[in-house]
């Protein structure tokens, strides 16, 4: 039912029962927010978004108060502005003000609000001392001194990721965000996906940086540093420098990395398509009468971690293949050793990735000597940006430089792994290349594209019909898995990504913006893929000469993880 209300003296039409904040946004009226998260139920925790409603003595939070007929609202009255400033000043009184050394820097929402509301000094003294930093995790650092109790990380961890590693502890003025028993992230159910970092408005959560180690590596003349780049980094790093998402920035990035000191620069697209070819072989040979529990395929270390600690009964259903980045790390070490004459211990692989969970893998590489399948260090997209700035590279002055390709020109679909549904699309292309009569539902794999959390398609060949599904976010995985089991639906393969919409929205990416940014990132990945439009994906990829990859090299073994150890 459409009704008329008055906002700042202007009549506007809106839907009865809609949230005030949504109505204001739809009519181009800006109200500052901190705790509000698009797509989540409102919490009203921060009160920064308060507005004045005629007839009410108290100010109301616009994010959790509904529109009523004949309502008269003031969004920027003197009373409202003063209330917002006071709320912000109280938040700052309990917030660590070491802004110059804060990892969030100029992307801090609290700093942005202080500028917007003209808060230029600390009016209230600090009410709490410095709190202990939680650095138990190999991927994420939590600094409670910078937490403003907005509840964003708690809601994302519980509602989107189904993990609930974070929650509110204690009461009253002693309330803080922490883990069960307050023992640290590594002793919790945390899967290191980094989505909490994406939504944190301050620097209370950040990735554990490998920048210092990579800097030391680049200065070591005895080492051969090799950069291995995730497709999602190629697609999104340019956003920091004003480039649109997509392949436009990729060749400039390669030049920048070589200027910094990387001797070799490669992408992981070949490894992704090579692995998809192996998965295609598994599905083609799959007996249709086999276990009706779907196989689960995931390149995502967060998903593997979640299943190993929360759903160990499903470990046997994980496709036993190493992820593409591990296959590529192994091959790049071999290739670089052959080219330079150096030993494997002198070749260091630095993985540039959108994934914070990959830091768990690289830390394992530091502990397990001689493990050639794991990168040595991992840098998130945000860290790569800081690395380029650290070395004073002016990207505007760089000429494009094409990537070396010792793996042939056979890989056509490897960039698709950056988006949810991309690995399934890659897989179906390979099946069609091997079995030309195979029939895929949906023109040009349209069912596997777009901003959807659940995507399904079917592939028919040799009298068999395979149902393939792509899921993003752990909560959607749990809901979908429960649904197909309760309805006894036959699904042959699930591709699962922990981060909503895939690696383009990974925990290490530029911090979460509007949905249109994700759409642009997806569009950029598909634009990259369209460069090969009309070129058939090969039914198999050939290894470069002098390189060997045995079947056992590609096999993965999964084991349960106790979250309290």
How would you summarize the topology of this molecule?
Layout: E1 2-7, E2 10-15, H1 20-26, E3 50-53, E4 60-61, E5 72-74, H2 78-93, H3 109-116, E6 140-142, H4 152-160, E7 167-169, E8 176-178, H5 195-199, E9 205-207, H6 211-219, E10 224-229, H7 231-236, H8 250-260, E11 264-267, H9 269-284, E12 295-297, H10 301-310, H11 324-340, E13 347-353, H12 358-367, E14 377-380, H13 381-390, H14 422-434, E15 439-440, E16 454-461, E17 464-472, H15 474-486, E18 493-497, H16 515-530, H17 551-554
Helix pairs in contact: 9-11, 9-14
CATH class of the largest domain: Alpha Beta
Tell me which CATH architecture of the largest domain applies here. 3-Layer(aba) Sandwich
Biggest pleated-sheet summary? 5 strands, mixed
**Global Rg:** 25 Å
- Which sequence of strands runs across the widest sheet? 2-1-5-3-4
- The count of strands amounts to 18
- Low-pLDDT sequence parts: 366-370
Total domain modules = 3
Helical percentage: 25-40%
Rounded to the nearest angstrom, the distance between the terminal CA atoms is 55 Å
Shape: globular
Instruction: Report the β-strand fraction as a percent range.
Output: 5-15%
**Number of continuous helical runs:** 17
Backbone structural class: alpha/beta
Mean pLDDT: 87
CATH topology of the largest domain: Rossmann fold
Oligomer: single chain
């Amino acid at each position: 039912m459409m009704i008329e209300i008055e906002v700042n003296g202007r009549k506007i039409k809106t839907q009865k029962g809609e949230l005030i904040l949504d109505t204001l946004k739809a009519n181009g009226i800006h109200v500052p927010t901190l705790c509000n998260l698009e797509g989540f139920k409102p919490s009203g925790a921060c009160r920064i978004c308060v507005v004045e409603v005629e007839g009410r003595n108290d100010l109301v939070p616009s994010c959790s108060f509904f529109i009523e007929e004949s309502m008269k609202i003031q969004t920027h009255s003197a009373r409202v502005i003063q209330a917002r400033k006071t709320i912000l000043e109280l938040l700052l009184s309990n917030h660590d003000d070491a802004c110059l050394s804060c990892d969030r820097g100029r992307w801090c929402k609290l700093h942005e609000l202080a500028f917007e509301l003209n808060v230029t000094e600390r009016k209230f003294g600090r009410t709490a001392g410095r709190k202990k930093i939680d650095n138990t995790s190999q991927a994420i650092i939590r600094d409670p001194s910078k937490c403003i109790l907005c509840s964003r990380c708690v809601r994302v961890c519980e509602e989107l990721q189904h993990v609930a590693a974070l929650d509110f502890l204690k009461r009253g003025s002693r309330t803080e965000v922490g883990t069960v028993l307050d023992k640290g992230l590594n002793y919790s159910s945390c899967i290191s996906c980094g989505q909490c970092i994406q939504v944190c408005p301050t620097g209370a959560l950040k990735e554990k940086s490998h920048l210092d180690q990579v800097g030391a590596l680049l200065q070591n003349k005895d080492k051969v540093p090799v950069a291995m780049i995730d497709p999602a980094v190629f697609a999104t790093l340019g956003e920091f420098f004003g480039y649109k998402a997509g392949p436009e920035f990729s060749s400039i990035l390669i030049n920048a990395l070589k200027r910094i000191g990387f001797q070799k620069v490669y992408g992981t697209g070949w490894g992704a398509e090579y692995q998809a070819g192996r998965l295609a072989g598994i599905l083609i040979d799959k007996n249709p009468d086999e276990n009706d529990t779907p196989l689960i395929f995931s390149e995502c270390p967060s998903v593997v971690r979640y299943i190993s600690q929360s759903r160990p009964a499903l470990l046997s259903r994980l496709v036993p293949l190493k992820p593409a980045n591990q296959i590529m790390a192994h091959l790049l070490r071999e290739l670089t050793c052959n080219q330079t004459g150096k030993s494997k211990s002198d070749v260091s692989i630095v993985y540039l990735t959108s994934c914070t969970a990959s830091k768990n893998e690289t830390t394992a590489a530091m502990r397990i000597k001689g493990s050639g399948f794991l990168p040595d260090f991992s840098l998130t997209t945000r860290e790569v940006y800081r690395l380029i700035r650290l070395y004073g590279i002016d990207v505007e002055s760089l000429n494009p430089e094409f990537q070396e390709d010792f793996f042939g020109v056979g890989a056509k679909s490897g960039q698709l792994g950056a988006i949810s549904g991309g690995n399934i699309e890659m897989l179906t292309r390979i099946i069609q290349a091997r079995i030309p009569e195979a029939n895929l539902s949906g023109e040009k794999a349209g069912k596997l594209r777009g901003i959807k959390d659940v995507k399904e398609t079917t592939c028919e060949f040799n009298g068999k019909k395979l149902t393939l599904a792509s899921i993003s976010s752990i909560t959607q995985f749990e809901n979908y898995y429960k649904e197909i089991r309760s309805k006894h639906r036959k699904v042959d393969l699930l591709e699962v990504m922990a981060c909503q919409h895939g690696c383009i929205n990974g925990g290490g990416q530029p911090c979460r913006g509007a949905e249109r940014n994700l759409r642009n990132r997806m569009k950029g990945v598909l634009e990259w893929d369209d460069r090969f439009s009309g070129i058939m994906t090969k039914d198999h990829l050939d290894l470069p000469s002098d390189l060997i990859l045995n079947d056992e090299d590609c096999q993965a073994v999964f084991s349960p993880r106790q979250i309290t150890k």
